Amino acid sequence: MAKRIVLVTGSLAEPRVQRIAEELDDAELEPIVANVGVKVAALMTGEIVERRLKLPEGADRVIMPGRFRGDLERLSDHFGTRFERGPDEIADLPAYLHGVD
Q: Which candidate, 87, 64, 61, 76, places its Cα nearest to that of 4?
């Protein structure tokens, strides 16, 4: 069964993140793009994520933008799912995802 990986993003980067998610050729991953409703995801706070993020059923992991500086442990506790910081650059997302176990 493929792991459901949620890719959190903002409005400006959403089309590019969606394109990368669609182009991934990996039967082990089911990437789901989640727009939190801010323009620039790196500037969102943990509190914004807690209020606005709607996780899909069965999410295995949530990958935040690399420049997000909120408390990942707090978000993991709040949602009951592992949160981690991804790469700083969207272009590095495929390589990062292939390293996720």
A: 61
Name every residue whose Cβ is closer than 8 Å to that of residue 71 and which is 6 or more positions away in sequence. 46
C-alpha–C-alpha distance, residues 18 and 28, integer Å? 18
pTM of the model: 0.92
What whole-number distance in Å separates Cα of residue 48 and Cα of residue 58?
22
Please list the alpha-helical segments (H only) found in the chain.
Answer: 14-23, 46-52, 72-79, 93-98
Percentage of residues in the chain having pLDDT higher than 70: 98
The secondary structure of residue 80, as a DSSP letter, is T
**Rounded to an integer, what distance in angstroms lies between the CA atom of residue 17 and that of residue 29?**
15
| Pairwise CA distance, residues 97 & 51, whole Å | 26
